[in-house]
Amino acid sequence: MKRSIITSVCTVLCLSGVMSSAQQANQPDQVQELRHQLLQLRETFERAEREHRQQIDALQKQIEALRQSKPQPASTPLQALPEPGAASSIPPTPGIEKQGWSPADPIRIGGGRAYMDIGLVGTFAVGGSTADDIEGGTQLGGHDPNQRGFTIQGVEVNFAGAVDPYFRANANLAYLLDSEGESSFELEEAWMETIALPANLQVRAGQYLTEFGRLNTQHPHSWSFVDVPLVNGRFLGPDGLRNPGMRVSWLAPTPFYSEVFLGVQNSQGETAYSFRNDHEGEPLFGRQVSRGQVNSIGDLLFTPRYAASFDLSDTQTVMAGASAGFGPNGSGADTDTQIYGIDLFWKWKPSNHHGGFPFVAWQTEVMLQRYQAGSTFDGSYETDGDGSYLPEETLTDWGLYSQIAWGFHKNWIAAFRCDYVTRADKADYEYVLGDDPHRLPRWRLSPNLTWFPTEFSKLRLQYNYDDREEIGVDHSVWLQLEMSLGAHAAHKF
Predict the structure, then answer these.
(1) pLDDT at residue 81 tops 50
(2) pLDDT tens readout for residues 162-206
(3) The whole model's pTM is what?
(4) What's residue 1's pLDDT?
């Protein structure tokens, strides 16, 4: 109980100290670090507040139960609680055990300015669908439910901490089980970033999720839905856009949050889905594609992004961003892909909220992809009209999702998402090959209901109505279960 009260007070003091320091500090490195973490501290504070309130309620119930079973003598005064942060010599009350380890307590190795926190999140799903092609068909994400019955969406181990006074680091290892029963381990992220550069600059290097839009940088346990939106799955791939590389960011000295990012990464592999990805030997847009290597700067993937956030009022906050991705693809010797995106996030939360509830949050992303498809004619033969020749052409597709979440009661959230993806033009070769399944128009409606029994567990029920051109309508129902242990990085605002 003492540790919980001390932690609550320290959290509040840290938050107010951050805001005061951001106004008074003259050192650029401190300004960068404090302003960069301000949005994350909001969510961290709310999460700590809910946790401490639960612990206080539990202890109050224990005290009431003991008072009813063993009334104290009238001559025995009640012992006063110690002041937060003060040393206590008062012995524990008989019958009340010392507060034990909490699932949110960090599993920490080291201390001081060099330490590592360890956390684990397990996400599972059970359900079914009328679709015959669940994995890669109705469900495009690598962490989506992939079969009727049970799915291990991911068991993720997170390592995060301070390397020294100049760098911090993060690594995420995930275990997955596909619909064929094959197990796999993957390194989702492993990066280190600076915390002491001047001029509000920051550099991140390693394997990281690309700063493109809002959802691509989030791990599955941060999602508001069981599965990834259609536009993310079709343009950024089942695993999201991520690769080894380096990202530079600059926090602009404005009265509101304003940050510019520029990422440079490798452009090949399955985690660069719309770029130089061989798609496991399967054709894409009627062409065989190759993986390639990095031979020059033109073989790299460049991803600029700008994001800004400000308060509309004391109860409303909005965040907007614009992103782009430029890099070569594997359909030809000199072909490339361009992806553009804009995103918007708005949240309302009353000033008298309790543990973050109630609230309303709306989020949407729109993307447009221009894929320069190479010619299949290499000059060694002439087409005879049987469809063996495909010209070089630029294929344009676009899509969006829009979702709203309503925290209508403490620990209860109702949400609804609408997805839509389609082509913006007709390919020249479709009179020969027919409509390409990678470009067919489709849309999906997804209502869900989420309940958090505690801060460390989650139950989510979701229904999907999928409508795919030339395939038809499919219905899916998924129940998701999630648990977390130890520390985990704060979610982005």
Answers:
(1) no
(2) 999 999 999 999 999 888 888 999 999 999 999 999 999 999 999
(3) 0.78
(4) 44
How many Cα atoms within 13 Å fall on the side-chain side of residue 135?
15
Specify the pairing of strand 242-251 against strand 257-266.
Answer: antiparallel
Measure the CA–CA gap between 435 and 426, rounded to whole angstroms.
Answer: 9
Contact 262, 304 (CB under 8 A): yes
According to the model, what pLDDT value does residue 391 have? 86
Q: What is the dihedral of CA 109, 111, 116, 119, to 10 degrees?
A: 70
Cβ neighbors of 250 (< 8 A, separation 6 or more) are 199, 200, 201, 202, 259, 260
For 121-153, write each residue's pLDDT tens digit: 999 999 999 999 999 999 999 999 999 999 999
Which residues on neighbouring strands pair with residue 371, listed in sequence order?
Answer: 337, 395
- Tell me the pairing of strands 442-451 and 149-164: unpaired
Total count of residues recorded for the chain: 493
Q: Are 371 and 415 in contact (CB under 8 A)?
A: no
Residue 240 main-chain phi, psi, to 5 deg: 80, 170
CA pair distance 263, 303, nearest whole angstrom: 5
Rg (CA), the chain: 26
Bridge partners of 397, per DSSP, are 369, 423
Whether the CB-CB separation of 345 and 332 falls below 8 Å is answered with: no
Torsion of CA 86, 53, 70, 76, to 10 degrees: 30
* pLDDT of 113: 78
